[in-house]
Amino acid sequence: RSVYDDQPNAHQRFMEKLDACIRNHDREIEKMCNFHHQGFVDAITELLKVRADAEKLKVQVTDTNRRLQDAGKEVIAQTEEIIRCRVQQRNITTVVEKLQLCLPVLEMYSKLKEQMNVKRYYSALKTMEQLENLYLPRVSQYRFCQIMIENLPKLREEIKEISMSDLKDFLESIRKHSDRIGETAMKQAQQQKTFSTALQKQNNVNYGRNMHFGRSRILESRNEMTLKRTLEEDDEHEEEILTAQDLVDFSPVYRCLHIYSVLGDGEIFENYYRKQRRKQARLVLQPQSSMHETVEGYRRYFSQIVGFFVVEDHILHVTQGLVTRTYTDELWNMALSKIIAVLRTHSSYCSDPDLVLELKNLIVIFADTLQGYGFPVNRLFDLLFEIRDQYNETLLKKWSGLFRDIFEVDNYSPIPVANEEEYKIVTSKFPFQDPELDKQSFPKKLPMSQSVPQIYIQVKEFIYASLKFSESLHRSSTEIDDMLRKSTNLLLTRTLSSCLQNLIKKPHIGLTELVQIIINTTHLEQACKYLEDFISNITNISQVTVHTARLYGLSTFKDARHAAEGEIYTKLNQKIDEFIQIADYDWTMSESDGRASGYLMDLINFLRSTFQVFTHLPGKVAQTACMSACQHLSTSLMQMLLDSELKQISMGAIQQFNLDVIQCELFASSEPVPGFQGDTLQLAFIDLRQSDVSPFQMTFLTCLCHLLVCLFFSRMRDSSKKNNIFAQFRKNDRDKQKLIETVVKQLRSLVNGMSQHT
C-alpha cells in the first residue's frame, strides 16, 4: 500500500527491496541443487550395472516359453476337441428343449393360418389371443417368435379390414333391398289393416249404409266379398310372407360386431355403423325431383324409408348396444322432419286431386307400418291435415272447372218434362217439390234449368270426394262431419259463388239468362237443407248437435241473386241507352208527326216483352227492375232535352217530344209489372211533368227557360273570351261577374213566376 502512497521516493525503495528478495531466493535454489546432485549421479551408475543382467534373463525366458509351447500343442488340440463335443451335446439338449416349447406355438400359428384361409375370423382372433397370452411369452426370445408377434397385429388389421369389407357389402345390400323390405312391410301392414277393416264392417252392417247413403246393399255385399277374398289370400300367401331376415343376410353385421368387440374396438365399430347408416338415411330421405309426378315415385320413396327403419328395428332387437332406442328415436325424428319437409314441398306441386288422394293413402299406410314398429307418427297425421287443405284446394279447382262447363252448356231455359218418367228422373237427381206444378198435366216445365240438378249432383260428388280423404285418419265422426261441412262451405261460398259471379258478368249473358240464373239460385238455396241431411247421413251425426256447422249456401246464393239483379238493372239501362242513342229529334221541325217516335215505340215494346219474362222472378225484383228502367228512361229524356249543345227548339219539336212523354206515361199506367200501388210507376216521369201544369205548357216553359239561360251564358262566354276574363280579375271584371249572377237570379225568378201563373 505504501507503494501507492504519495510519499516521496516510495516506488524506488519498493523496487530496491524487491531486487534484494530475488537475490535471496536465487541463493537458496543454488544451495538445493548442490545438495542433491551427488545422489543423482549414483543412481545412474547403478542402472548401468543392472542392464547386462536384464538382457540375459530375457533370453532365458524366451527360450523356456518356446519349449513349453512346443510341448503343449497336442494337449491343446485334444482339449479343444473335448470342449467342442461338449458344446455340441449341450446345444442339442437345448435345441430339443426349445423345440418342445416352440412346437405348440407353431401348431397354433398353423391353425391360425388355416382359420384365416377358411374365413373363420372370430376363431382366428381367439387363437391369436391364446398365442399372445399363453404360447408366445415362453419363446419370445426367438426371432421367429418376434416375427409372429409382429405379424399378429397385421393379421388383426387384416381381419378388421375383411370384416369391414363384409360390413360395407352388407350396407350396400340393405341399401339396395331397402325398398323391397319396405314394400313387403307396407304390404303386410295394409293386409292386416284390410283384414281388420273387413271384420269391423262385417260386424257392423250399418257402417256401409252410414258411409254411403243410398248404396248400402251394394256395399254390404262388397264388404262380405272383401272379407272372404282377404281371408283366402291370407291362407294362400301365409307361407309366402317375407321378412327382413328373408331378404337380407345379417350375418356380416353380427360377425363384424363380434370381431370388433373381441379386438376392443366395439365403440369404434358402433360409431362407424351409425355414421354410415346416417349417411344412408340422408340418401334415402333425398327424393327424386320428379317424385311428385307419379304415385310410384311416392311409393318408392316411402318403401325405402320403411325398409331402412325396419332394418334398424331388427338390428336394435337382435344386437346388444350396436344401436339403441335413443339412437333410433333420434334418427327417426331427424328423418321425420325431413320427410314432412319433402312432402310439404312436393305435395304443393300436385294439382291432381286423385294423386293427392293416393299420396294420402300412401302416407297412412306408411304411418301405420312404422307405428307397428314402435315409431311415433303423430306428426304425419298432423301433416295429413295440411295436405287435406291442399286436397280441398285441388278439389275446388277441379270442381270450378266442372261448374264452368255446366254453366257453359246450359241453355238457361226451364226443364221440359214430357211424362212421369222424365219427371222422376229429374226429381231423383234434385230434391224438387212444387204441389202446384204437380197438379198440372204433362207435358210441363220445371222452373229451373238443366244446370241446377247437375250442380246439385256435383256438390254431392264433391262431398264424397272430400270424404275419401277423411277416411283412415283416425278421427271421430264428429270431426269428419265438421271437415265435410267446412269443405262444402268452401265449395259453395268460394268456388260456386265465384263461378256464378263470373257467369253473371259475362257479356253474352242476356236478361233472359240472368232471370233464369236468379230462379236457379233460388232452387239451389232451397236444396241446401237436403245437402245438410246428406252429410248427416254419411257421418251419422245429427244436425241438432251443438258443434255441428251449418252450410253457408244461403248467403252464397243470395249474393249471386243480388249480383244478377244488379246486372239486370245495368243491362236494362244499357239497352235503354242504346235506344236513346238512335233517337233523332229535329228540334227545328214546324209541326209534329202526330204519333210517338219510332225509337220510343220500339223501346216500349222491348220493355213489355222483357217484363213478361220477369213473371217468374220474385215480385220485388221485377218491380225494382221496372221502376229502375222507367226512372232511367225519364232521366235520359230529360238529359236529351237539357243538352248543352241544343241552341234552339221549335214548337213542333216540343209537340213531338210531348207525344213521346205521353207514350211513356201510358206505358207506366199500363202496369207492365203487377204489384205497384196507385201511380207509383208514373211518378218516375214526374221530372217531365208537374201535377198542375199541362204537358205542353210544362214542356214549353222548361224549353223557354233552358233557351234563355243557354243564350245568356253563350253571350257571356263570347264576351269573356274577348276580355280574357279568367286571365286577371280587375275591379270592372268583378262588377261584370256580379251583374251576370244578378241576371241569372232574375231569369230563374221569372221562370218560377211564369210557372206559378200558369
TrEMBL record:
Residues 380-690 form the Exocyst complex subunit EXOC6/Sec15 C-terminal domain. GO terms for cellular component: exocyst; plasma membrane. GO terms for biological process: Golgi to plasma membrane transport; intracellular protein transport; vesicle tethering involved in exocytosis. The chain crosses the membrane at residues 696-714. The keyword rRNA processing does not apply. Keywords: Exocytosis, Membrane, Transmembrane, Transmembrane helix, Transport. Gene3D superfamilies: Dsl1p vesicle tethering complex, Tip20p subunit, domain D (1.20.58.670), Exocyst complex subunit Sec15 C-terminal domain, N-terminal subdomain (1.10.357.30). Residues 17-186 form the Exocyst complex component EXOC6/Sec15 N-terminal domain. Belongs to the SEC15 family. PANTHER family: EXOCYST COMPLEX COMPONENT 6, SEC15. This is EXOC6 protein.
